[in-house]
Specification:
By secondary structure, this protein is α/β, with parallel strands linked by helices. It has one domain (about 5-230): TIM Barrel (Alpha-Beta Barrel). About 45% of the residues lie in helices and about 10% in strands. Strands 2-1-8-7-6-5-4-3 form an eight-stranded parallel beta sheet. Strand 3 (about 75), helix 3 (about 80-95) and strand 4 form a beta-alpha-beta unit. It is globular.
């Protein structure tokens, strides 16, 4: 089971858009030192849609090699083409990923049966643990709780990152999965602003955008929750809510990458069609991160 603060890692880039390997190494070290509980390279926040397959797998390999087993690495290997998803999942498995995160096929708008068969085919072609990823605002399709319950019966499909926008989906998924006789399937939040509510409903962690800029704070939030210090977890969540909000003031990961650049962690590079954060929002992004980071 994957738990705690799992960072949806940005892919640092040079000013001309090349992957910045040294900055990637430095980010990974910062996360491990800060207590981040897991790392996702090549998720949506990693700009997976604009890296080619070779780059995609290179980033996954570099992350696995640099982490060296210190925390789990959950490789983003999703695609809207089932065969491409199979290829990337197999490659990540060979590279040593602890699990793979597979977003629902985007743009195609498959039916629920099509979604089921997509994931069924990937699971049949690989042996690495598979985490489903549902994010309808990005993909145009919604993986229903009933379909998740069907998929949970397949060997190797172990959990889901849920980002449909409705925190109550956590309870629906867990109830549907339990009714189907599965008791070891987990849910992690894909919506930072809703994570506390999702934990209260049975989620066990988050694949977090905010963890990119405040890794220690996000780790502390989950550590407090795991220790049963609910009031401390709620206080940290209150401090983080303004950051959760501002990191989506423009298309993600533009605000997050600019914030990391402002913190001196990465260069300003981002790939078209995304562009750097607008000047008008920069001061507020900086202020909210500074306030949350300074709060005790």
């Amino acid at each position: 089971m994957l738990t705690g603060s799992i960072v949806a890692l940005v892919t640092p880039m040079t000013e001309v858009g090349d992957v910045d390997w040294r900055a990637l190494d430095d980010l990974i070290e910062w996360h491990v030192e800060s207590g981040t509980h897991g790392i996702v390279p090549m998720g949506t926040t990693g700009e997976s849609a604009t890296l080619d397959t070779t780059e995609h797998l290179q980033v996954i390999k570099r992350t696995i090699d640099r982490v060296a087993g210190r925390v789990p690495v959950i490789a983003g290997t999703g695609s809207n083409a089932t065969q491409e998803a199979i290829h990337q999942t197999r490659e990540a498995q060979e590279l040593g990923a602890d699990a793979c995160l597979l977003v629902t096929p985007y743009y195609n708008r498959p039916t629920q049966e099509g979604l089921f068969r997509h994931y069924q085919a990937i699971a049949a072609a690989s042996s690495v643990p598979i985490v489903l990823y549902n994010v309808p605002p990005r993909t145009g399709c919604d993986l229903s709780a009933e379909t998740v319950a069907r998929l949970a019966q397949i060997d190797g499909i172990v959990g889901i990152k849920e980002a449909c926008g409705d925190a109550h989906r956590v309870a629906e998924i867990l109830a549907s999965v339990a009714a189907a006789g599965k008791d070891d399937f987990f849910v992690v939040s894909g919506e930072d602003a809703q994570t506390l509510q999702m934990l209260e409903l049975g989620a066990v962690g988050a694949i977090s955008v905010t963890a990119n800029v405040l890794p220690g704070k996000m780790a502390g939030f989950f550590n407090a929750w795991a220790a049963g210090d609910v009031e401390r977890a709620r206080e940290i969540d209150r401090q983080l809510q303004p950051v959760h909000e501002i990191l989506f003031i423009e298309s993600s990961p533009a605000p997050t990458k600019w914030a990391l650049h402002d913190l001196g962690r990465i260069n300003a590079g981002i790939r078209l069609p995304l562009i750097p954060l607008s000047d008008e929002h920069r001061a507020e992004v900086r202020q909210r991160i500074d306030l949350a980071g300074a709060a005790k």
